[in-house]
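Data card: per-record layout.
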Amino acid sequence: MARAEDGVVFGAPAPSRTGLTSTVTLDGGGNSYLSPDAPATDTTKTFALSAWVRPAATGAPMTVVGQDAADGTSAVTLGLRPSDETSATWAFRYGATTLTGGSASVRGWAHLTGQYDAEDGTLRLYVNGKEVASQRDAAPVEAPGAFRIGRDRGDSGAGWKGEVGDVRVWDRVVPREEIETLGSRPAELAAAWDIERTDDGVVPGRDGGEPLTLHNGAGFYTPDIEGCLLDPECVEFPADALDGNDHLALDGTDDHAATGGPVVDTAESFSAGLRVRFADTTPDRPMTVLSQGDADSDAFAVRYDPAVSQWQLAVTHGSGPGAAETVVAASGAPTSHTDAVVVVYDDSEGRISLYVNGEAAATAEFNASWSASGPLQIGRGHTDGGGWGEYFHGGADTVRVFDGALTPSQVRSFAYLY
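The structure for this 418-residue chain is written out next.
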């Protein structure tokens, strides 16, 4: 059992999709840590350490867990190390050897595992279940002092600022498969719309989920193949629906579809995508196909800008008009067939990515996510002045939204992940 100092706050949020129900919050101060006041493992023999963590800042070194040496310092630590050139990285220190890897994001959950195999002196660091660094032939390091959660011993103390949960210590080699399972946060389907014709202007969500409501005359496209077969003057069959028998038809003026409220928490990892077909493969203005925000701005918006021939994913750094914006873009052009566009935000990596037709088109670091309280929008987004605009002219279908970040292979089949 670990003794908690006064600066430990219990009942903090836990990472979603992990089975954990709560964590502790530490403020980085000298009395904000937990300790059993004894060593948790013999660090000269095989051992492993792991924890779920969420840093409140990444600008200074911080220790998640550590074990003290006999001289009043910490001989073994697992934590975070800042960088002047790139994102902060995760670190596993064993005596004089430090492994670093992965990207640390402010308010982004990550699962860390540090392991020492005494048989061949191999050190390994895992982030979110994936090995990011290793080194062989490390000499055994003695750490006979107390095990601590949230700080190490030394001049700085390197206190952890943020959340920590599910701290584990093993006196064995933990297999890669077990680490992958512990560090996994698989994406879960939050909402799905297989858009088929309805008579009441409301497209039901799958399994009774949030419906999509059609606005300002938005309707449906249904190919009249039978009519063409019966018409002797019909020489070209109409194009198929994007998926199924029908798809959403938007006029580019004011048509759109929207949910009644937010579908996904845009402050945490999420993925969202749909299939579209442009009415004109040479559009004359920017058009937004998918967005979610609030009354004044979009937390994210996927658009096509013909002026620069680019698919663009724009994410804002806060709500309200004039908020800073990060835009990732990829050269391309609308096709006369189907374009599938998917946005993936990974809060543990602090990264936003845009996929077009299953391929990673553009990606960038992004650490300023916020919770958008407004509905998911199909076919429109906010303009610079805060009003609605960039209405999409064309068809839309197969809308999918996920809690969590899809993997590249999952993106390629996003429409079929149930």
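Known properties of this structure: The radius of gyration is 25 Å. The longest strand covers residues 393-403.

See the next section for split statistics.
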